[in-house]
User: Fold LL-diaminopimelate aminotransferase from Candidatus Eisenbergiella merdigallinarum.
Amino acid sequence: MVTINENYGKLRGNYLFSEIARRVAAYGQAHPEQRIIRLGIGDVTQPLAPAVIDALNRAVAEMGTAEGFRGYGPEQGYEFLREAIVKEDYGKRGCDVSADEIFISDGAKCDVGNIQEIFGQDNLVAVCDPVYPVYVDTSVMAGRTGDFNLRTGSYDKLVYMPCTEENGFVPALPDRTPDLIYLCFPNNPTGAAITKDALQEWVDYANRNGSVILYDAAYEAYIAREEIPHSIYECSGARTCAIEMRSFSKNAGFTGLRLGFTVVPKELVRGGVSLRDLWARRHGTKYNGAPYIVQRAGEAVYSKEGKAQLKEQISVYQENARVIREGLLDAGYTVYGGIDAPYIWLKTPAGTTSWQFFDQLLERVQVVGTPGEGFGAHGEGYFRLTAFGTPENTKEALERIRKL
Amino acid sequence: MVTINENYGKLRGNYLFSEIARRVAAYGQAHPEQRIIRLGIGDVTQPLAPAVIDALNRAVAEMGTAEGFRGYGPEQGYEFLREAIVKEDYGKRGCDVSADEIFISDGAKCDVGNIQEIFGQDNLVAVCDPVYPVYVDTSVMAGRTGDFNLRTGSYDKLVYMPCTEENGFVPALPDRTPDLIYLCFPNNPTGAAITKDALQEWVDYANRNGSVILYDAAYEAYIAREEIPHSIYECSGARTCAIEMRSFSKNAGFTGLRLGFTVVPKELVRGGVSLRDLWARRHGTKYNGAPYIVQRAGEAVYSKEGKAQLKEQISVYQENARVIREGLLDAGYTVYGGIDAPYIWLKTPAGTTSWQFFDQLLERVQVVGTPGEGFGAHGEGYFRLTAFGTPENTKEALERIRKL
Assistant:
């Protein structure tokens, strides 16, 4: 008799964004006359850039000819894309990363969960609190967290690293030493950035303890300040302790096109085994590559035209972030994030929980955000708005919120 | 200190096709003057059909406009595609499958491995021998097989179901009752098909024992005979014991475009838990959907033009299969498969192992096939050729082999 993976039973409620979608759909059905503005989920709104569209068109045309057709691609991804990444994302920032350390995938979300498979079952996992739920949920599903403790509101075996106003939403080194450390900077959901010095402390800590940092750099394109590192490999010693995940979703609007990558340096060895080789084996056995046409689209992101167009695209979202941030400040809210990140993290009014604030915004002014509690216990009392809406909707949402 | 997943150390050698690629590359470098014909890996050679290209072009154009742009898609896949699948793949064959039981993915290879995650660690896995290596390797990586036993040439805890000339390459019900049973028909690598009556026996067996059949139907488009079922859901009772995986790779040439799906019926419940709901949770948490443009391409596969064009495309590969099959028979080989499947399974000459035959074909006539031993112990003495080459290459390969 088949048994099921009992760890799924330890998951808390639905995946956050499914729950939000459910509440919004229910409200929309009850009030079809209301125009809802969505600043909740981190989905982009601007169309793909012309350079990306051109690359897709060329690649689609190739696929329709006997000479140009491409079937299964190279297991790690096409070299043209990996080489562009090495040069543009790493070489230009002085990071030592080579093409055979890059694994093209269909997105960072898949990679941040799947990467756990190459590690032993008993590794202790650390996450920020609040945190992108996927790190926690995939750890639960893999049986690495133990049970959810209703009294403490946390998983018994998970190390939570509080991100608070006091520490500027950059966690302190944890008391219990974790084996796997999820870090995401610029941060989702708080919008906080980490300085190079602070990140260097984490790298040194991981190297001292033999831990591995799983560094989610999906929002690096939004970094505005000079002193903020775009990659963990800007820190010295990161090649012996860090795996970095990147996405094309937020820098190039690929949320519906699906492309990302993971970097596993060759120096990353544990128990005498190369983690790069383990991931190569996992990637080659359980995955079959991103579509050729999408990899060509990814290549276009690094072209001269692509870079210029996407700079423009990101500046629209950065301006949204400014509008949200300053609008909220004007309206008397306490606000974080939104400078080096597309997320604004606001404090809910005193006495209002984050889900209450969610319902208020939805029901009174028809604006959808994300309740901080959905990101963890330390997210309670906060609320996330994203800068990925259209400029018109973003401005209108802020006007509505100011009337609240 | 991080520990690694020790199960990876139990994997045997490289993934089969990586090893083949290595040998072919080495030969090619040493003999650059030779033209190598590849009938090894199951990759298609015909370009995407015009209806598919049109759909891609339309979808790419949409993605370049503010109105047509699509970001994150629905978690299970777009309804337009799931509804087309329900109607064309299942409804027309009298199979009761609904759109909310279909999960669109980036290919069957990913799904056949990932599906294991929703099951308990201790489930006993059964595979055919010979077998598509991914079922075995993903079971090893998940720690479900125990160690590889050099004396027996098999994994201690894996149930092997021999597929031999004697049983027509359709396995007998196993002695030890497995929990998870991988079946693939039409079969890779043997090219064998299963009759509806024989498949019904498996369904009844699984229902009697509470086992779950993981049915890989990636090659159903090649079925030529009336009595061969295209889906396991043609058997009565399959909805309480079977998960079916399908691919667009072989019926529509999507090997480089990446699209597939998995069906998990709502009646599939174990330990009081719906497997459909578990898979929905896994899919929503660890995956972010196939690209919108690729899902539109998939929809076009079911259009009137698409169906006509793809019937033509498949008939080219079917004709290749006939050429290989009859050519080999003429040359005195014993040959199986190639009637309801794109794979031909030939017996290697007496006294020649399958890797020896691989090297002979490569070195003497520059034809690449796949050694049966790479698919399992019972694959020794056999060799797989695929019908996915171009007609010209296929004919020339057979002329060369006849001169061997």
Summary: Chain B is about 35% helix and 15% strand.
